Amino acid sequence: MNATPLVAIPEQRRARELRRAVALGSADRSHLRDVVMTTGLCITWFFLGCLLLGLGFHLTDSDKAEAAFLAGILVANGGPMWTVIIRRWLADQR
Predict the structure, then answer these.
(1) Where are the alpha helices (DSSP H) in 1-94?
(2) Measured CA distances, 32 to 26, 46, 68, 71, 73 (Å)
(3) What is the arithmetic mean of pLDDT over 72-81?
(4) Dihedral sign of CA atoms 81, 88, 40, 24 in order
(5) SS3 assignment, position 3
(6) How confident is the prediction for the chain on average, in pLDDT?
(7) What is the spatial distance between Cα 90 and Cα 75, in angstroms, rounded to a whole number?
(8) pLDDT single digits (tens) 34-71
């Protein structure tokens, strides 16, 4: 039985693909750092929003309580969303 390749790949393309794979392997550590940083920022925004929500329940002035409550909802939902959007945009710019 003779095993001949279906497609002949030139040596230049093989070398280019090998260089690309090595570059992606070295960029993997940078990507992991970006993912950890983005996750940490999202968790921080979420907990800050939860703190504002809790403050809204404990304030006695109704206007300030409502403002803190709505700010908590905005920060807990909007903070992680905008963090992911901006980090993704910055990653695409590199």
Answers:
(1) 11-58, 62-93
(2) 11, 21, 35, 31, 29
(3) 95
(4) positive
(5) coil
(6) 89
(7) 21
(8) 889 999 999 999 999 999 999 999 999 999 999 999 99
